Description:
The chain is an alpha+beta fold. The chain has helices at 9-20, 25-32, 36-48, 61-73, 79-88, 95-104, 120-133, 138-141, 209-228, 241-244, 246-255, 271-282, 291-302, 307-315, 317-326, 338-357; strands spanning 144-153, 185-192, 201-203, 234-236. It is elongated.
Amino acid sequence: MAKTADLTTVQKMTIDTLKKEGKTQKVIAKEVGCSQSSVSKHINREAKGRKRCGRKECTSKRDKRALERIVKQNRFKNVGEIHKEWTVAGVSASRSTTHRRMQDMGFSCRIPRVKPLLNKRQRQKRLAWAQDKKDWTAAEWSKVMFSDESKFCISFGNQGPRVWRKTGEAQNPRCLKSSVKFPQSVMVWSAMSSAAVGPLCFLRSRVNAAVYQEVLEHFMLPAADQLYGGDDFIFQHDLAPAHSAKSTSTWFKDHGIPLLDWPANSPDLNPIENLWGIVKRKMRDARPNNAEELKATIKATWALITPEECNRLVDSMPRRIAAAIQAKGAATEYRLPYMLKLSMFILFSWPTFLKNHFLY
């Protein structure tokens, strides 16, 4: 015979209907196909209006509202600090109860995402720039050559795979990740269009206007010939001092290369930033021992970028601009479309996944 907790919805509805018809519990149990005690418990539960059993919650709706206010005042506090403030507010609850109530509200502890800090004037300029470019089509954005520098370190800090370990294995050499105080690093410049990526330039010194113009002469111009042939294009770079120097502006005028006006402190609008992030994520499993091995790894990973991936990133410009307008010029976080992430996983991570999880 079925217990009260095992009664189906149909059985419960049948019991309620037969009860209204005046049938006895014995007759109801026979027709429904369960024990008489199950019928009795269900009828009594409905009569008392009790929907659940167990201990009553020790916090009220007012207490929950107070907890939500505490969390929203400073979202970077840990559970212990939030619990202490909640207790001071007059709520008697344990630390674990505080954590459960936060989870019930939908709060989860996550690593905060990083966005550039923008002042009011910069937000206004970003908004004006986005509104000016909101009608640009994908074909117009395909004529833009995006460029940027990025720093690669032998040790990628908090990036990299997590480790599976048991209790007491924290100091196991196989579970440790090596780190150095001043890791070797290289600075890289490159460019991209909707068709492909340009060559890499490894910078050996601090980038000033003179060094940057050498990069333009020996790497940007060949990249333009490679990506656009003899067609016209617009060059994009940010407002770094070397980029906005008068001598650099003169260099572009002398070569007849138009520049795309670009808002300050806006890496979220540049698709090549996503490309750098993709390359660094794909290098997580690499273990270069020196700067030369790091350069070789960067070159090998950069060479795997396909034209389809570049095209998807540049095609995202209208969505980036729409997000900037919606945020009223504030910094936005643009995430790669799901299909692009999937294609990246298949291209870069799938062979490593098979190697690490299966035996050939």
